[in-house]
Amino acid sequence: MRTRQVVLVGGGHAHIQVLEALVAEPLADARVTLVVDVPIAVYSGMVPGVVAGQYEATDVQLDPVALAHQSGVGVTIGRVTGVDPEARTITLVTGEVVSYDLASFDIGSTVAGLDIPGVREYALPTRPIGRFVDRFAAFLDAQRDRAAGTPLRVVVVGGGAGGVELAFTLDHRLKSDTACDVSTVLVDGGPRILAGYADSLRRRVVRRAAQRRMTIRTGTRIRRVDQAAVEAVTGELIPYDVLVWVTGAVSQTLFKESRLPVDERGFVRVRSTLQFEQDDALFGVGDCATLIEYPRTPKAGVYAVRQGPVVTRNLRAALAGRPLERYRPQTDFLTLLNLGGGVAVGAKWGVSFEGRWVMRLKDRIDRRFMRRFPRPRFPTESL
Ligand SMILES: Cc1cc2nc3c(=O)[nH]c(=O)nc-3n(C[C@H](O)[C@H](O)[C@H](O)COP(=O)(O)OP(=O)(O)OC[C@H]3O[C@@H](n4cnc5c(N)ncnc54)[C@H](O)[C@@H]3O)c2cc1C
């Protein structure tokens, strides 16, 4: 039988587990290639902990390339920019073309609103997340020499889970590591922060924000950014010294530009087998794919993590001509938000909780995940 070509695009939360499984049991009669834009992957769940000063930047890095080498998987470093399902080829930004019999995409998402004037120039977007970690470190270094009492105004735009964690952890870190007079504003365009989360979780976050003298501004949609302030649609200006942009997930343009079936945010539509809507040879997992049957599934790493073993089994089944497994997302997941200072809040099934023990629980869960995978031997700045 001809050796089939299987291509894994992206080294995110799902594919790292595919690679892990291939170390134990390679795919039969197939040559596998991993294509990643950067050789180091970042575990986003611990990034607020880096901002808080709990972890080093290198503590949150994973090495999909080392895992690929262990499992006999070839590696190509380069950004994928297109797919041609008819020719069964994947195109890289370098112009290189990779052929596939089966391919799986786990390329994550990008931040919404990057086309708002001034955002690209002045804001720190949270995607790519490795670059965010590097830029945060450079920003923090620059603040340490500032004179005591200098105002340091932090604005975080986006009141989802990531925005809440970054507003709190930034506020905590800057107050403890600099002598500046730190003030933090969390801005959201909707009527409330943490839309879609338990009300009691939101109340705990709002209470903690008040205790730390942080400001939460809801119903404030930003239309423009300049180097000193963000401008709301009402014309109001909110001044900042550092601006973090974490306004939710949208897709890279790759799927739309390849004329594949996508949802309204550009994410590729997949069936419950994790195969593309009209193509049995292409799989999509994690943030980059929207389940046709469960389109409201949040773009959260926990779903990408659960999809890893399923896509592994389905790649094996597809190669063997066996029926594929159906993935059904869990209806709720344990939310744990790092608020800095060793404190976290959490919720599950509508019940919320907070405290140091919640942070210890989050730390234990995150470290357990990280321990499964190799870490870069020579940690570098993300590319
Ligand atoms: C600050 C912050 C905190 C978060 N905390 C949590 C949390 O606690 N729990 C939770 O469930 N979710 C959390 N999230 C959401 C979580 O980050 C995403 O849902 C998760 O990263 C999605 O995983 P993924 O595997 O789809 O993609 P990613 O983990 O983003 O991986 C994508 C991979 O693809 C590669 N890649 C990207 N584009 C290309 C390309 N064009 N060509 C080749 N390779 C490419 C990347 O380098 C990377 O290897 C957080 C998000 C943020 C911003």
Residue share in helix: 25-40%
Number of strands: 26
- If you compute it from the alpha carbons, what radius of gyration comes out, rounded to the nearest whole angstrom? 21 Å
CATH topology of the largest domain: FAD/NAD(P)-binding domain
Structure description:
The protein contains 10 helices and 26 strands. By secondary structure, the protein is α/β, with parallel strands linked by helices. The chain folds into 2 domains: 4-37 and 78-109 and 251-320, 3-Layer(bba) Sandwich (FAD/NAD(P)-binding domain), CATH 3.50.50.60; 112-247 and 334-371, FAD/NAD(P)-binding domain (3-Layer(bba) Sandwich), CATH 3.50.50.100. A 6-stranded mixed sheet has the order 5-2-1-9-22-21, with helices on one face. Strands 11-18-12-13-14 form a 5-stranded parallel sheet. Strands 6-7-8 form a 3-stranded antiparallel sheet. β16 and β17 (237-239) form a beta hairpin. The chain is globular.
Describe the SSE topology.
Layout: E1 4-9, H1 15-24, E2 30-36, E3 41-42, H2 47-52, E4 61-62, H3 64-70, E5 74-77, E6 80-84, E7 89-92, E8 97-99, E9 102-105, E10 110-111, H4 119-122, E11 124-125, H5 129-144, E12 151-157, H6 161-177, E13 181-187, H7 199-211, E14 215-217, E15 222-225, E16 229-232, E17 237-239, E18 242-245, E19 249-250, H8 254-257, E20 268-270, E21 275-276, E22 279-284, E23 289-291, H9 301-320, E24 335-338, E25 344-348, E26 351-355, H10 356-371
Parallel strand pairs: 1-2, 1-9, 2-5, 9-22, 11-18, 12-13, 12-18, 13-14, 20-23
Antiparallel strand pairs: 3-4, 6-7, 7-8, 10-19, 15-16, 16-17, 21-22, 24-25, 25-26
Helix pairs in contact: 1-3, 1-9
Bound molecules: flavin-adenine dinucleotide.
Flavin-adenine dinucleotide (FAD) binds at residues 9-14, 35-38, 41, 44-45, 47-48, 79-80, 106-108, 126, 129, 162, 165-166, 246, 252, 254, 286-288, 299-302, 304.
